[in-house]
């Protein structure tokens, strides 16, 4: 079994267990769902810039999939949200915050 098979089967199990969909095409397809998801921190770290990672993500997704950008990897969440919104325009559907406790976590004041 290849790594991609394991990943797809793990996503399938998550969907069967109650998740709405999977983040990969293979995992979602096994469960008869459309893939959905957001950009992971790892992708942003590899690109070295939230906007560059979001634009790369945008280029790979079919137009009907919502673009959800993770905006708490490098800089202030508000600053990153504005940078991504400016670059993406109407293509941006939402931003995601999962700021860890070490950085103050997501709070009503942050949002």
Structure description:
- With 111 residues, the protein is mainly alpha-helical.
- It has 2 domains: 1-36, no CATH class; 38-111, TIM Barrel.
- Helices cover 45% and strands 8% of the residues.
- It is built from 5 helices and 2 strands, in the order ααααβαβ.
- A two-stranded parallel sheet has the order 1-2.
- α3 crosses α4 and α4 (50-60) crosses α5 (77-88).
- It starts with a helix and ends in a 15-residue tail after the last strand.
- The model has no long low-confidence stretch (mean pLDDT 84).
- InterPro entries: Aldolase_TIM, NAPRTase-like, Nicotinate_pribotase-like_C.
- This is Nicotinate phosphoribosyltransferase.
What is the name of the CATH topology of the largest domain? TIM Barrel
Number of strands: 2
Count of helical stretches: 5
Proportion of β residues? 5-15%
CATH architecture of the largest domain: Alpha-Beta Barrel
Question: Could you tell me the mean pLDDT?
Answer: 84
Which shape, going by the Cα principal axes? globular
In helices, the fraction of residues equals 40-55%
- CATH class type of the largest domain: Alpha Beta
InterPro entries: Aldolase_TIM, NAPRTase-like, Nicotinate_pribotase-like_C
Organism: marine sediment metagenome
Protein name: Nicotinate phosphoribosyltransferase
GO biological process, one term: NAD+ biosynthetic process
Question: Which properties best describe this structure?
Answer:
single chain; about 110 residues; mainly alpha; TIM Barrel; two-stranded parallel ribbon; about 45% helix
